[in-house]
Structures are given as C-alpha cells and as structure tokens.
C-alpha cells in the first residue's frame, strides 16, 4: 500500500491505531481497565423469569446477526436454524434477494426443510406436499379442489424481517417489527463493518456446541484474563494473556487482542503493517454474536438460549475471505476451524458447564468482574438496559 493508504482507508487506519494501543500495552505490561470492580448477581444467570424476558426481548424483538451473505451464495440457497424455539428459514430468492421465513408449512404446521443448508427452487412439505417457491409463495396445492375458496396469497410462508447489509444477514424473529441495521449498529460500527468486505466471504463449515446459560457462554468471549491458565497450551501460545484493547460501540463492543508476534511491527514502517496478522479484532454484536476477523477467515459464533435457563447452543461458523479453490486451502481452513472448535468445546465450554453447576450450588450470590474485564461490565449492563429496563 502507498504512504497515504491509511488516510484513504479509514478501516486500515482504525486497525493500525488499535494495533498501536496493543503494542503499548505489551511494552508497558498494561491493559485497558474499567473504572471499578463489577458484581453480577448469580440470579441474573439462574432466574427463569429474567431468562424468559431476555428470550422475548433480546432474541424475539431485537435485530440478530443470522450469518453472512455467503450462507446464501446463489438463488435458491437456504439455511435453516432454530432460535428460541422459532424455526427460521433463510432463502435467497430467484430475484437475488435474501428473505427470512418461519420454517413451518401453512397447512398443518410441519417443517418445510429439515436439512440445515442446501439449494432448491421449490420447497415442499413432506406431510401433504404443499409447495412454496423461493420468495415464499404457495405454488403447489395437491387436491386443490378440496380447498375451494382458499386464497393462496394469504397462505405463503410467514415472513420475518430481514436486511442484508455489508455482506451480513440481519433478522428479527417477530413479524412486522421494523428493522434498521444501520441504526442498530450505530454510525461507527456500521462504517467499520462496511470496510471488511464480508460480502465476498465463502461459508466453509459450521459446528454446534452445547453450553450452560447463554450469558455464561457469552462471558467466554470478553476477556483475556484466563488465557494463561485455561488456554496455556493453546490460545496462550498465540495471544498474550490479560492484554486487551476495549471499545464500546453503543450496545456493541470491539476487543483487540495482541498476538505473540505484535512487537515485530515496531521495526517496520506503518505502510508495511498488516494489522490482522499481529492482533485479533473480535466484535461482540449485541446481544449474542462474536465476530472474529482474521486475515484469511471470519469466525461467527452465535450463542443461542436453549430450552431451559441453564442451557444454550453456540453455532460456530467459519467463512473464507478468499475463494476456496484448492485442496490446500480446504485443509488450512479445516485445521483452523477444528482448532477453534476444540478449544471452545474442550476448554471453555467444558468448564462452562461446571460453572453452571457451581452457580446452582448457592456458593456465590454474585460473580466478580475485575477492572481488567471491561467487556463483561459493558455486556451485562447492556443486557439489563435493553431487556430489563
């Protein structure tokens, strides 16, 4: 890049500034701090009424990041997932527009699609073969004479709000609720996401991982204080322990983590810097998604409440930022995706289940977040502000 590339590319300038903050922290043995210690009541994790309120408000009526455009690469592509008991079906129509529907036949309530991903131009219920097209219209009705007077236009798939912006798929689980992604993100985060070219990312693989309460699962992503202890032979070999650069973007946040090679940049001109090779930029999209941007891949971790207050599921999806056009590229992506999955499954969430049991034991009446864990402070304050105000 040329000497004035930072000025012409605001995102690059932001990533360089973030990297400089992390270099300073590593050199000085410091990290970003909150103003005080934060105490989170254990009942905020275990109370069923609060959990139900969070499902209804945060997951039922708030914009949710459902995936990237690469989940629906061409007309007829679909992705099915269930969020808080709502079966969601994302389809890219023959007109190229991405839409969201409730994955339920309008005849007798059977699912339209059982597979998680695929491509087809007609969606036929296995029960009585009612058939829908890629824009959700009812186009096939066996024994139509038995349904004299039925208005097909009123029996298309139930549509949910969806907006595709910056190569990201955003939806709301309640029909008719207004959706404005730019407003939800805020000017700064909307601009930052617009610089990453997420629309060119290609989906590679997704894993589903069980965890305890959804907020306990989210807590995993907000700090680096545990790297040297819980991840001493994995993440700690790659990333510095207990060093973070925290920025709030209204209800959302960004956490920067320095990689072990970050100090190599001190002897290089900034015009030669590739910041994402030397630090991790992880966005926590409120209420439930962690977006990790790396040079060659994007990791989307969707944390979804389970059927009870003490359960959740994380859908962890890896997307390639360049074409998956060789066996070598597939091997590389597979190695990366499995590494992250195994760390989360065998280290973070293995302990997460034990923490859930610990909360139910009554040993603690609150959890304590240190000043070196500002992301946790911000997240839990936002949950209270948005769900329980």
Structure characterization notes:
This protein is an alpha+beta fold and 389 residues long. The protein is 28% helix and 27% strand. The chain contains ten helices and 20 strands. The protein has helices spanning 5-8, 10-28, 43-46, 48-59, 181-185, 187-194, 214-219, 227-230, 327-360, 374-387, and strands at 38-41, 64-68, 77-83, 86-92, 98-102, 117-119, 123-124, 131-132, 138-140, 159-160, 162-165, 168-171, 202-211, 245-249, 252-258, 279-285, 289-293, 297-305, 312-320, 366-369. Residues 1-7 have low confidence and may be disordered.
Index terms:
389 residues; alpha+beta; Naphthalene 1,2-dioxygenase Alpha Subunit, Chain A, domain 1; Rieske Iron-sulfur Protein; 2 domains; seven-stranded antiparallel β-sheet; five-stranded antiparallel β-sheet; 10 helices; 20 strands; 27% strand; globular; disordered N terminus
Report, as a whole number of angstroms, the end-to-end distance: 48 Å
Which architecture of the largest domain per CATH? Alpha-Beta Complex
Strand order within the widest beta sheet: 13-19-18-17-16-15-14
Shape: globular
- The H-level CATH homologous superfamily of the largest domain, spelled out, is Naphthalene 1,2-dioxygenase Alpha Subunit, Chain A, domain 1
Number of strands: 20
Strand content: 25-35%
What's the gyration radius in Å?
A: 22 Å
What is the N-to-C succession of helices and strands? HHEHHEEEEEEEEEEEHHEHHEEEEEEHEH
Largest sheet: 7 strands, antiparallel
In the predicted model, the low-confidence regions spanning at least 5 consecutive residues are 1-7
Return the CATH topology of the largest domain.
Naphthalene 1,2-dioxygenase Alpha Subunit, Chain A, domain 1
Mean pLDDT: 96
Fraction of helical residues = 25-40%
Structural class: alpha+beta
Count of alpha/pi helices: 10
CATH class of the largest domain: Alpha Beta
The count of domains is 2
